[in-house]
Design brief:
Blueprint (H helix, E strand, L loop, with lengths): L2 E3 L5 H6 L5 H11 L4 E5 L8 H13 L3 E6 L9 H20 L4 E4 L10 H21 L3 E5 L16 H11 L5 E5 L1 H6 L4 H8 L3 E6 L1 E4 L5 H8 L10 E4 L8 H10 L5 E4 L8 H18 L4
Parallel strand pairs: 1-2, 1-10, 2-3, 3-4, 4-5, 5-6, 6-7, 7-10
Antiparallel strand pairs: 8-9
Helix pairs in contact: 4-5, 5-6
């Protein structure tokens, strides 16, 4: 089971502040982390630029690293059909870039839980859009991996299909396809108020990739506080919510890897931690070491 890393701690530096380049992230990760690959983010990937994409692939490959996964955040729940069509086109460009980078998996989401749209209506919108994107992914040999997600960092509202019943309803509405699977994130289950083990048991045979993350609420904060904050449109994550070193939070990775092992999972696991750019690399190193040990213990390495 190969291990990748996602530069959560450096997203602002790469995408907003432009104080770090993607090339610098590749060099940093290659030099300091015990990993097999890098998960890219469409927000820092030169979508549509084949020359630039091939150069990034070569740079990673020169360090023995693959680029197996693309993290993308489409918003398919907007009431305007023209908006949804633009999001479909964005997802298609992310799929094509994933293939150019030599990747296998491109993340897909439902979209924001807008108050003016019912859950059933949002699921219908998202399923219709994702089915179109699946056909495009299949043409490029890419698997779309739907994440049990919390909220994109630049969204106002949380994920429409955040809670397990809604997530399962969306998975069922999309249907079966070799070009479609699930990206399981145990921490997002906790944020949704679900049991991450219950979520995994429900989707274990559909899981193709996993985000290894641990979340922490600020001292004194509760999930009820988080839900209150999420009820109001605010861009980004709630301030009381933090990523942390994998293995030091609320998730039981022994149980998670045991279930995945019995289900025959052999896909990529991508580290998603490192909230603080100052401590980010140290946290990623600690997370990688923890995950390597757990993979070994469960025969998944």
């Amino acid at each position: 089971m190969p291990l990748a890393a996602f530069p959560k701690c450096f997203l602002d530096a790469i995408c907003v502040e432009h104080t770090m380049t993607v090339e610098e992230w590749i060099e940093l990760a290659a030099g300091e982390l015990d990993i097999d690959g890098l998960e890219f983010y469409s927000g820092f990937t030169p979508l549509g630029d084949r020359t630039a994409l091939r150069a990034l692939r070569r740079r990673a490959s020169n360090h023995g690293l693959a680029i197996p996964m693309m993290c993308h955040s489409p918003d398919f729940t907007h009431p305007d059909p023209a908006y949804r069509q633009k999001e479909i086109e964005r997802q298609k460009r992310a799929i094509e870039a994933t293939a150019e980078l030599g990747g296998q998996f491109c993340r897909v989401l439902s979209g924001q839980r807008r108050p003016e749209i019912s859950i059933a209506e949002g699921i219908r919108y998202a399923a219709d859009c994702i089915q179109i994107c699946i056909r495009h992914a299949d043409e490029f040999g890419i698997v779309l991996n739907l994440e049990n997600h919390y909220k994109d960092g630049w969204w106002e509202y949380p994920e429409l299909a955040q809670r397990l019943p809604d997530f399962l309803a969306l998975v069922e509405a999309i249907g079966e396809s070799p070009a479609f699977g699930v990206n399981y994130d145990p921490s997002n289950a906790i944020i949704a108020g679900d049991d991450p083990i219950e979520v995994l048991e429900a989707v274990k045979h559909r899981v193709v990739t996993m985000h290894a993350s641990d979340r922490f609420l600020s001292p004194g904060a509760t999930l009820a506080d988080l839900k209150q904050l999420d009820a109001h449109p605010t861009q980004g994550y709630a301030g009381i919510l933090n990523h942390g070193v994998v293995g030091r939070g609320l998730n039981d990775f022994d149980q998670i890897f045991s279930i995945l092992g019995r289900a025959g999972f052999q896909g990529w696991v991508s580290i998603e931690d490192g909230q603080d750019p100052v401590l980010g690399m140290e946290h990623l190193r600690l997370s990688a070491a923890f995950l390597r040990q757990k993979m070994e213990a469960h025969g998944l390495r």
